[in-house]
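Same chain as my last thread, 333 residues:
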Amino acid sequence: MFRAEELILNTEDGELTKAEASRIAGSNEIGMVAWQCFMKTPEYPGGREIVLVGNDCTFMSGSFGVKEDDFYNAVSVYAREKGLPRVYIASNSGARIGLVEELKPYFKVAWNDSSNPSLGFQYLYLSPEDYAAFPPGTVNATETVENGERRMRLDDIIGQIHGIGVENLRGSGMIAGEQSAAYADAFTLSYITGRSVGIGAYLCRLGQRNIQMTNGPLILTGYLALNKLLGRDVYTSQDQLGGPQVMMPNGVSHMQVEDDQEGVRAILRWLSYVPSTCFTRSPALPSADPSSRKIQFKPTKTPYNPRDMIAGVDNADGTWTGGFFDKVNPPGP
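reply #2:
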């Protein structure tokens, strides 16, 4: 009835392949995972396929680094080229922005007034000895002399770890562009199961349909940061910024659910209206009300119930006048 094959990105050639065997949960090395799923449904008793991709919020809070961006981009392109519906399970903390931790104990500050740090500073610097102790390329610095002291004034802090700086923002722009392309070429559905921030919120917004859990705010930045910027406590929670009570009326989210079980049920129901690929027609179950039936209801010059024209109406004499839609409870043979 159901089969899931995990998708793995080969870092050498950038190709997305199916895992030869199921990996143990938690053995992934990046904060994003994906599967190609096969399932038999009432609409497709022979089976259909979808691509499922989601954040692993247990890995660095589900943040987007370079590897996560490359993986998401590859999965989206894979689904788009095959015309398969792609479901994104969103629970993340946005783009990963970090610090070069190994340098923090060695920073020195050139204060405008060392007795009053509130007046600000001129620059950060390292001693020549500390600068020489780090591998080449960790920082870019210019030697200067202040009060007879040699200082290595920091121009750029690069670090030895790739994936904690602005390169992540480049990746965010890349997957936002891919999500926009997928919007036009295939069916994209997002389920916001937890807090989704920054690029995680953009990916949902750039998709075609969103299902949002009650406790899954969709935000660009946190309420504490906004309060600090505004100088007073305007917001008290993330839900005030991006909870379902905000996103549903604004048309960003299209369905609200209370828990993950209801969320999965909503995903499957939504897929029941979606064709197996974007190259085929939408599914249609056999109907007892034949599609060749003519619409019998005719509008009158006097006021009438427009529902009768849409759904049909049972007449007083026991007969039925058909409308645009199928009869809900067609008579037996």
